[in-house]
Amino acid sequence: MTDGAMIPHEPAAVTLARVRLGAGGPLVGVRVAEGRVTHVVPERDGAAPTLTAMGERVLDLDGRVLLPGLWDAHVHLAEWASARRRLDLSGTACAREVADRVRAHGRTAPGAGTVLFGYGFRDGLWPDAPDKRLLDAALPDRPVVLVSADLHAVWLNSACLALVGRGDHPSGLVREAEAHAILAALPEVPDETMDGWVADACRAAAARGVTGVIDFQFGDTVGAWERRAAQSRPAVRVAAAVYPGHLDAALARGLRTGSRIGAAEGLVRVGPLKLFTDGSLNTRTALCRDPYPGLEGTDAAHGVEQTAPHELVRLMRRAAAHGIEPAVHAIGDRANTIALDAFAAVRCRGRIEHAQLLSPEDLPRFAELGVTAGVQPRHATDDRDVADRYWAGRTGRAFAYAGLLAAGARLEFGSDAPVSALDPWLAVASAVARTDDGRPAWHPEQRLPVRDALAAAASGRRLIRVGDRADLVVVDVDPTAADPDTLRAMPVHATMTAGRWTHGPY
Predict the structure, then answer these.
(1) Residue 67 in 3-state DSSP?
(2) Residues 427, 378: Cα–Cα separation, whole Å
(3) pTM
(4) Checking DSSP bridges between strand 371-375 and strand 411-413, what pairing results, if any?
(5) What is the pLDDT, as a whole number, of residue 446?
(6) What 3-state class would DSSP assign to 329?
(7) Spatial CB neighbours of 299, under 8 Å, sequence gap ≥ 6
(8) Rounded to an integer, what distance in angstroms lies between the CA atom of residue 357 and that of residue 397?
(9) Which of 360, 357, 352 is nearest to 316 (CA)?
(10) Per-residue pLDDT for 428 more than 80?
C-alpha cells in the first residue's frame, strides 16, 4: 500500500474479473474508468475479454465479494486520531482503577510538565466517583486530563485544573459545555502533527473498507480540511461539518452542504451544520421525558437542554435557507421529539445524530419528514447496562434500528469515533447480533438483517450499478454467510475510492 499523500495515478481503466457482485451475488466482471463503474458483465462468457481494451489492466479477484464502499457517517477525526495515541482507559471498572493506570503510565512514559491525556472512561456504573484527589495521589506533578468515552465529560487533576484556570474546582470532574471549554484551553497539537495523525487514521479506515466519513470534529472543521486538502489527497472522502460559531463565515463564503473544499479532486466537501439538543446517556445529560433514577426532584432530573427549541428552529432555518443541511444531536426521547418538531417547522431535509431513545409516535416521523437517522450500533452493545439502569422499562425503544427501518426511515451507520472504534464492521456486527460479549442479544427484536446493515454502513447504497462512483471494497468472506465474530474481523482485501486503490496489494 502507498502513503495516502503519495497515491500514484491509477491506470485509465481496470477490470475486476471473477468477483461476486455484492453479498450473495453472482460472479461478474466490473470495469472501472475515470472514477466510475462503466460496465458490469456476467462472468459466464468470460467478462475480462469482453470488457478490456488493449493495454488495460485485469485483476482476477478469485471469487471475492465486491461491495459498495463503506462510510462512517459520524466521526470526530482529530479526536480519534489523538485517542489512538492516548492512554487507553476503556474497560476500567472504577475510579481507583483509572488512577492506577495513570500512575503506571506516568512511570513508564515520563513527560514532566507535559499534559498526560487519557481517553475512554465510563463512570455511569462505577461504585466510586471520579475525583481530582485520586489523580493527585497517582501523579501529582504532571497535568492529567482524562476524556470520557462519550466525549461529554473530562476529569482533571489539580495541576491540570490550575493550568486552565480552574484551580478551585471541587472535584475535577467537569461535564458538557464546561468540559469542551477546558479542552479548548489546553495546549494544542501543532497543525502539522495533527494533520499527520489524521492522515494516518484515514489510511487505517481505508484498510477497513471505508471510502468516506462525515467529520463532526468540533471547531473550524472546514478550515482544517481546506488546509489538509491543499497538501495531499486523503485516503477517504470527507464531509466536513460546520458548527454554529463558524456558520456566519461559511454563509459569507457562499458555502453549501456539498461544496467542494480544496484541491483534492472533490474528495473533500462541506458537510452539515452540527447542532445539539441534549447531552449523553453516560453523563445522565440526555434529555428524557422521565427522570433519571436518583436525580428525581433536582434540576438535572431529566437531563440537559443544550439548545432551546426556538433557537434550534432559528439556526436550522437560517442554514437551510442557504443550502446547509442540519445535523441535530439528539439522544433522549424528549430531545428527539424536539429535533423532529424543529424539522417539521423548518421543512428541510437533514439528519438526527444518535436517535438513541425514541417515543413510539416519533418512529414514523423520520420517514415522513425525510430525516436520516445517523446511528451508532456499537453504542447499543456498549451501553446496554447503563441503559438498563437509567432507562429501565424503556429500553425496548432504545437503539430501535429495526423499528426505524420498518417505519421507513433511512439509517446511516457511524462510529462516533473515538466513542467507538472507526471500523464499520463492528457496527454491522452489533446491528446484526445486538451483543458483542457472549451474552444473549439485547432486545433481539431490534436486530437488522445483514443486507440492511451493510446498506446502512454504505450510506444507503445496496447495489453496484453502471455509472456509480468507483467507491468499492473487496472482502474475502461473503457477509451473508458470516457469523458475528467473522463480521467484526472481516478480512478486507482491497479498497478503492474514486477509482484509485487506497488499500490493498494493487
Answers:
(1) strand
(2) 5
(3) 0.92
(4) parallel
(5) 98
(6) strand
(7) none
(8) 6
(9) 352
(10) yes
For the record, the C-alpha cell of 191 comes out as 497543525
Decide: helix, strand or coil at residue 481: helix
Whether residue 19 contacts residue 493, with contact meaning beta carbons closer than 8 Å, is answered with no
d(CA 69, CA 71): 7
For residue range 151-193, list pLDDT tens digits in order: 999 999 999 999 999 999 999 999 999 998 999 999 889 999 9
Q: Determine the number of helices (DSSP H) and then strands (DSSP E) in the chain.
A: 18, 21
Three-class SS state of 132: helix
CA dist 340 and 274 (Å) reads 15
Residue position matching grid coordinates 476529569: 155
Which residues are within 8 A (CB) of 474 and not within 5 positions of it... i.e. 6 or more apart?
Answer: 16, 19, 61, 64, 65, 66, 67, 492, 493, 494, 495, 496, 504
Contact (Cβ atoms closer than 8 angstroms) between residue 147 and residue 123:
no
On the question of pLDDT at 362 being above 50, the answer is yes
* CA end-to-end distance (rounded Å), the chain: 7
Cβ distance 485 to 499 under 8 Å?
Answer: no
* Residue appearing with cell numbers 457477509: 479
Cell of 412: 446511516
Instruction: For residue 179, give every residue at least 6 positions away whose Cβ sits within 8 Å of its Cβ, in sequence order, or none.
Output: 152, 153, 154
Give dist(CA 82, CA 84) in Å, integer: 5
β-bridge mates for residue 475, sequence order? 65, 492
Is the pLDDT confidence value at 52 over 90? no
Mean of the per-residue pLDDT values of the chain: 94
What DSSP designation does 381 have?
H
Rounded Cα distance, 75 and 94, in Å = 27
In 3D, which of 205, 261, 267 has the Cα closest to residue 234?
A: 267
Q: Would you report the helix, strand and coil content of the chain in percent, each value rounded to 5?
A: 35, 25, 40
Is there a contact between 304 and 329 (Cβ–Cβ < 8 Å)?
A: no
pLDDT category, 223, cuts 50, 70, 90?
very high
Q: What is the pLDDT of residues 74-103, one digit of tens each?
A: 999 999 999 999 999 999 999 999 999 999
For β-strands 472-475 and 492-497, DSSP reports them as antiparallel
Which whole-number Å values give the CA distances from 223 to 70, 237, 242, 250, in the listed order?
A: 25, 16, 10, 10
- Report CA 160 to chain centroid distance, whole Å: 29
State the pairing for strand pair 500-503/210-215: unpaired
